Amino acid sequence: MPIFEYQCVHCGHITSFLEKAGSQEIHVCAKCNSKDTKKIFSTFSVEGGASSSGDGFSCPTGTCSFSG
Ligand SMILES: [Zn+2]
Q1: What contacts 53, CB < 8 A, 6 or more positions away?
Q2: Range of the structural domain that residue 18 is part of
Q3: For 2, 25, 55, 67, which has the most beta carbons within 10 A of its beta carbon?
């Protein structure tokens, strides 16, 4: 079961919940019991990062022997 983090829009407290897929549970802040929580998408994946040797050998100049 994936763990999702919800941040209380009231006090800003972040509570982690185990959530079943497709569940529509109401998550209550553990600190102030507010139901106004929003899901936090923790996406730490680096997009377009510095990949030294990528999968596709596409030479920017076209003079590389690996290109083509
Ligand atoms: Zn709260």
Answers
A1: none
A2: 3-32
A3: 67
Number of domains in the chain: 1
C-alpha of residue 48 to centroid of ligand 1, in Å: 36
CA distance 22 to 4: 13
pTM here is: 0.54
In a domain, 27, yes or no: yes
Ligand 1 centroid–CA 14 distance in Å is 8
The predicted-structure confidence for 6-42, as pLDDT tens digits, reads as follows 999 999 999 998 878 777 788 999 999 999 999 887 6
Task: Tell me if 49 is assigned to some domain.
Answer: no
Residue 1 alpha carbon to ligand 1 centre in Å: 24
Tokens of 67: 């290109």
